[in-house]
Known about the structure:
Layout: H1 4-34, H2 38-49, E1 53-55, E2 58-60, E3 67-75, E4 82-94, E5 97-108, H3 112-124, E6 130-142, E7 145-162, E8 165-177, E9 180-189, E10 196-202, E11 208-209, E12 228-237, E13 242-252, H4 254-257, E14 262-264, E15 268-278, E16 281-291, E17 294-297, H5 298-308, E18 310-312, H6 314-322, E19 327-330, E20 332-340, E21 343-347, E22 358-362, E23 365-371, H7 378-385, H8 397-405
Parallel strand pairs: 5-6
Antiparallel strand pairs: 1-3, 2-3, 3-4, 4-5, 6-7, 7-8, 8-9, 9-10, 10-12, 11-12, 12-13, 13-15, 14-17, 15-16, 16-20, 17-19, 18-23, 20-21, 20-22, 22-23
Helix pairs in contact: 5-7
Amino acid sequence: MLHETTQRRVCRTAFLTVCVLPTLLVAAWVGWRVQPGWRATRVAQIGHELAARLECRRLTTPRPGQWRLEGCVCLDLESGEELLRASRVDAWPLDGGWRVAVGEASLDITQLEHAAERTSHWLRSDWPGVVLASVDRLKVVDGDTALADWQGVRARLASLGEPDALTGRELSVVHHGVGGELTLLMQRNRQVTPATTRVTLSTGDTPLPVRLCAALIPCAPSLGDAATVTGRLVAHFEAEPHGEVQGELQCVDMALLTGGRFTTDAPGSVALNDLTWRGDKIASLDGVLSSGAGRVARPLVYAAYTKLGCAPSATFSEQWNTSTEQEVAFDRLVLALRLDETGFSLRGDEPQQGAAGVVLSRGGQPLLSEPTTTHLPLATLVQTLAPEGPAMLPASAEAGAITRRLPMPPAPR
């Protein structure tokens, strides 16, 4: 038996150790957590480790090691502009990286370029870690209009090579939708000098708004805000960007695409067997442009006849001579175009035996047939699309803009 004085000392020591000290430690920890600036400091630390700038309305820890940011906003590191807004972000460290689970997130189309710059920064960084992310719902909006609404998006950002000798970085994004699997793969290759970035987008059967992938389609601004693309797009970003597109463009604004020369009652479509581009120029094109009923500017029809050799039907020639209308009405347009630096060829729809393919038709009858010459120089195409001026290449701003987009052959020496 211990002496009574010793028993009292043991009890006091046990009370201080088991009750008082833990209580004081918890109180100090709570006081530290609720002090002004603690949340902002911790959110900044999480953002720094994820190479992002974050802000949130509320920060909690649902379980040890897991951070929950409610009302989270991801900002551009330099400008502070909003890139992405999420209802909830759960983040917890992994062995050499982070796992991130996002609730509902929205991205405004006006911030897409800044988001692409931030992604490029991640691909160029030397951080050797891995980020695994999942998004319950991702919306891309233009004001109040939803351009894309995807459920269940998965992303992975990882380094290639050993931590002390990185050969590159890779970002993969996958979405499983009703139209199949939509995948985006971005790869930074540091084994070449200078380093290059390759972007591969496969849409499956899911129509993707062209505005979301304007960097991969050189003619995107000329297709209209409602245009969509289905297919495969590849782009290489280096000293001179280049890439290729195969697939189908739908809901194309024909008036915008043709500079007002065609107007149609419904959007047109373009089937791209192959489109390659380099810098601001189209390197080669193999595709079919088609649309339903519409109208075509009279000067373009005349240029197609005189410059390209498109043959008008007898009925159309008679109507042409008696009509004073500035536009020609048609029911169907089919124009198959192939071009490269050697020239171009233009064809109509599948011709019947012994007949030329029809480019324009009305009431089931041909208006304008395909050219009789199978291969034409690109200068002829410029003359047709910009017929003003007597020169071989019309001296106009419009002709210059068209020429800069085409793979014109070098001038002879």
